[in-house]
Design brief:
152 residues, alpha+beta, two-stranded antiparallel ribbon, 17% helix
Length: 152
């Protein structure tokens, strides 16, 4: 799996909303519905979309809050994961997210990433779509992380 060899393009995600978000994905990737909008006590709404292609499956969670700072959200997500994980190792950090290793309850290692995209009326949290049949390998996670972070 070599992200450098994958042809990519900017993909308009959540295009039916007034505040869509661009993300870099492999050409041919398709958007699928994720979680339906859920009202959080009238303060904000959470919903998600999924983007898939062979060897590429991400979920994008949208939170309808405006006026948020990317750095603050990245730090908040980093702290959440540290608390939730039995064992956590930060592999790479960038301004808009990070790549990490965690140990699951069964002792297996899982690799993942978080990328934050801030728009006017919401922000998006990009991460690998959870797999029903096990953990995400370092190679799989790095492949997706490298693709969504390609400069085009």
């Amino acid at each position: 799996m070599d992200a450098e060899k994958i042809e990519v393009h900017k993909f308009l995600l959540d295009s039916e909303s007034k505040d869509s978000i661009e993300i870099v994905v492999p050409k041919g990737a398709v958007e699928f519905p994720g979680a339906q909008p859920e009202d959080m006590l009238g303060l904000y709404t959470i919903y998600s979309k999924k983007v898939r292609l062979e060897d590429f499956a991400i979920e994008v969670e949208f939170i309808t809050l405006s006026g948020v700072e990317q750095d603050d959200i990245v730090q908040e997500k980093l702290e959440e994961i540290k608390i939730e994980s039995e064992s956590f190792r930060l592999i790479k950090q960038q301004r808009d997210g990070f790549f990490f290793e965690s140990k699951e309850i069964n002792g297996d290692l899982n690799y993942s990433f978080i990328k934050i995209i801030v728009a006017k009326t919401k922000y998006a949290v990009v991460f690998p779509e959870p797999k029903p049949d096990g953990n995400t390998s370092m190679e799989e996670a790095k492949f997706m992380y490298d693709i969504i972070n390609k400069q085009i």
